[in-house]
Amino acid sequence: MSGRRPAILLRAIARLLIRGPESPYVLSDLGDAFDRDIEAGLPHSRAQRRYAANALASAASVLAARLRGVSLRFSWLDVRLGVRMLLKYPGLTLVATFALAIGIPVGLAPMHAVDALQSNLPEDPDGRIRMLRYWNVGLLAPAPTSFDDAERWRASLSSFEAIGASRMGSYNVEVAGTEIPAPGAEVTASTFDMLAVPPVWGRVLLAEDERSSGPDVVVIGESLARSLGTAAVDLVDTTVRIGGVPHQVVGVMPEGFQFPWNQQLWLPMRERPAAVPREGRPVTVFGRLADRVSPDRAQAELSAVHAALAGEWPDIYRHLNPEVVHSSFMAFGFPKGGLRALPEFAMIQGLTLVPLLIACVNVGLLIFARTATRTSEFAVRTALGASRGRILTQVFTESLVLALLATGLGLFLLNWLPARILASFRFIPMPYWLTPELSSATLLRALGLACASAGIAGVIPVLRTTSRSVLQVLQRASSQRSGTRFGLTSSVMIVTDVAVAVAAVGFAIGIGHRVATTFANERADGIQADRYLSVTLTMAGGESAPGGAPDPSAFQARFGAAQTALVERLRSEPGVRAVAIGTALPRMDHQTRVVEIEGEDLPPEPANDGGGHTVRTALVGPGFFEVLRAPVLAGRAFDGRDLTGAAPTVIVNTMFVENVFGGHSAIGRRLRYRAGNDSSRGPWHEIVGVVGHLGMHSLTPDQDDGVYHPLVPGSVPRILLAIEADGEPTALAPRVREIAREVDPRVVIASPTTLDRVFEGDWYIMTAVVGGVAMLVGVLLALAASGLYAIMSFTIAERTREIGIRIALGADRRSIAMQVARRAIIQIAIGVAIGLPLAASVFFEMQEGSGLAPSAWLAVALALAQGIGIMLLVALAACLVPTRRALRISPVEALRGDG
Amino acid sequence: MGYLGEFEQLILFSVVKLGDDAYGGAIREAIEQRTGRVVSSGAINTTLGRLADRKLVTCRLGEPTSGRAGRPRKYYAITPAGARALKASVSTIRAMAGGLTAKLNRLAEDEG
Rounded to two decimals, what is the model's pTM? Predict the structure, then answer.
């Protein structure tokens, strides 16, 4: 004997998995094999791995042996019996359906989400249309593609029968005095060749429309015509004003066509390749694969074309790899393999299957208890000639009926909930190809999960209950005992249920506390958010040099002038108190970057090695802090000096000063950004001012180190305005739009809403998470309670005679009750002992960085104790009913059972 | 008498070889040492159970061991029927393989 043994967990798992009459000998042999490995000089870890492999293979062999010779035969009678069992045991039906109806959609959700997010375009059910893009291997993110990339690929790639470029934007569309902002796109004529969708009226864009000397034309969608309050056919060959410029409508696309996102109008892309590759505004490039060309072959050709170009322009194409990816990647910037290839996806998929597995095993426990009461029925049937396979089929069918009922409910939830959530996000434009509806793949997976659930919950219990000989069972049946015992599995399940439920209570309290803190912080940050109107400001189209090449500086000058003029006009407008501009407004999600401080000793690039300080940043216009009532606490605010860019300056928030400088003065210190490669490392910026905290992320409004930069008008293509109103802010929206049109017809004002509603979407997510967690806690509590109830009822029923006799002999009822409930109480206690530290760690992990005051800990501990108290009460109530029933048994009745 | 599968033959050979010391763990080790095949304890025990059902082996319980939580070992011995079945299987293999070794070797080399 070596004296060393396999880890206790491994032994426990082996005991759990290897069941049946042969299991003691198999387990004994497993131990022998382990000893021999150790004696042969194998390291303990290697011997453990061999033990685990042997245990798994043994479990499979034992199960296969038990199933061997079992012939399954389906009968409609079994289905009828299954339905009858649902009605006969309504409590079990309710709990089991509830548990599986939550478990199945949760288990299906990741794959369903992937299916929805990676849908093919409706015009391309076969998935032949692919996106062509660059991937920055340094930053591990997509890099922009330019018009000249698209042109080059179009000329040199034979793997695609058509390649098109598009650029999305917002446009002001005016017809007969009615003006609305509409999403549109500049597209190459080849885009329509690629999509091959015929117009409902007129024609699509043609190559000659791309000539800058040609007439201004537009193709509109039927949905735009409807928004304008007119029939699409009436608009053909008429003139509409887009950004103040008259355009002739040459065609109307069908209602469902909104390529590439939610576009309602399409303008010809009138652009010439820039002198240097990758200059100019970014475009999105799609191509339709030629017949019998696989995406891999297209990728190989694209890589070959790129290699030649990268050799010519090494600096420009450093870190960039061209990729042929699924069309949906335009929206989400996934790495090449898509969501399924992410290691996080496998983890999430695994995690989401855990609740289903827990639900299945718990339901299995309930079905086991029910099946155990039918042992004598099975024995009599076996004696009358029914095969084990026949009984197995019947119980499997009964479980399947239950699982299918739950699956139907689960699928309904899975179909209904995402649609409701998407409807809540109506203010966020969703891509038109996103299909949250259930796909046939999801239905098949659901069916698979239902069968697996029925197998785990139904077949394993019946295998256990039918493993004894007929004679043995009949003997026990005659003494009104099933002879079935709840072993280690049930104990492990109850302990796990209680532990997970307690941990889930901690999680629920953590979420609830987090939400409450966030709400409180929002109210405390001093901004009267409901008094500000928030709008986004963009300018449609671009500016071109006389030769047709893009002219970014001309665009910047025009957009900058429009911004300045608009802000000035608004400030003098009645009903407007003040106007602030920036790339993000308080509490919106600000961009995250990593900075280093001058004089700090930091490891070299790349930044993602853990060095530097993570900050949230925004560009803000002059007077931004004043307008939002956030006075500069030290140093100065931005002014005209900061806009020249000669000596870059920044203002930081108090959080930054506290976390980076330990509360010491930050004025005059310098910082710069760190990035994935040297070329994007920025210049040093001097800190000239310190402001209070304004909230830089909706869910963590009080914990972000913030860095603000001066906003040079026109330097970014999309900015936000916070307009402080005297009255109802949204009432100002039409006037803002009107002034914007007067300033420059190409300026587009979109998403008008009050500042307190800009992060509404995050609240929907929070509410959904809180609701989901509450439901999960409910399910776990119900499972734990029902599992305990089932086992208690069963155990007491088995001991009826013994309890009756003991009471007849004058035993103390309380001590009997304690003895009966002891097992349950021990299980609950172990569960709570495991769950409590888990709950505490989950709770405090969730409050990480939220500035939870030590004084609040006591309240939290009390809340947690309250949660656990509720759990204990529920569990004890589950024990109470069967125990009371046992104590009421009369001795005569108990003895009568002894036949 | 019935046909014996290859794995059943291996187990019966091990039982014969081990004599009074033929229990699951020892049989597994014997197969592993002689054939290099790693087999699971579960497969050995379930196959032995099947052979016992077919009356090709008998089993007896040993004394409880100290290290296995008191679990006893099951020792197996081949029955005359088992010995006959194994003998018949060996004869069948021999009859079929007779004179073919050289050819097999040649074919295997060609393949390589």
Answer: 0.64
Specify the 3-state DSSP secondary structure of B41. Answer: helix
Asked if B71 and A33 come within 8 Å (Cβ–Cβ), the reply is no
In the chain, the amino acid numbered A94 is L
Sequential DSSP letters for A728-790: -GGGGHHHHHHHHHHH-TTEEEEEEEEGGGTTHHHHHHHHHHHHHHHHHHHHHHHHHHHHHHH
pLDDT at residue A60, as a whole number: 86
**Residue range A530-574, pLDDT digits in tens:** 888 888 888 877 666 666 666 778 888 889 999 999 999 999 988
- Rounded to the nearest angstrom, the minimum Cα separation between A386 and chain B is 21
Say yes or no for a CB contact (<8 Å) between B45 and A62. yes
The rounded distance, in Å, linking the Cα atoms of A475 and A21 is 19
Please name which of A168, A271, A262, A275 lies closest in space to residue A224, comparing C-alpha atoms.
Answer: A262
* Strand extents, DSSP E, A316-437: 320-326
Q: Which two tokens stand for residue A332?
A: 């989400």
pLDDT digits (tens, 9 = 90+) for A746-804: 888 887 888 777 655 556 666 666 676 666 677 666 666 776 676 666 666 667 677 77
Residues of chain B neighbouring A26 (CB-CB closer than 8 A) = 24, 41-42, 45
Sequence-separated (6 or more) residues with CB below 8 Å from residue A829: none
Three-state DSSP class for residue B24: helix
Contact across the interface for A31 and B68, Cβ inside 8 Å: yes
Chain mean position to CA A122? 24
Give the closest residue to A404 by CA, choosing from A443, A354, A362, A374: A443
Name the DSSP class of A455.
I
In angstroms, rounded to a whole number, what is the distance separating the alpha carbons of residues B89 and B98?
Answer: 14
Q: What is the ipTM of this complex?
A: 0.82
CA distances from A189 to A124, A162, A204, A268 (A): 18, 10, 8, 7
Residues of A in contact with B41 (CB under 8 A): 26, 29-30, 33, 54, 58
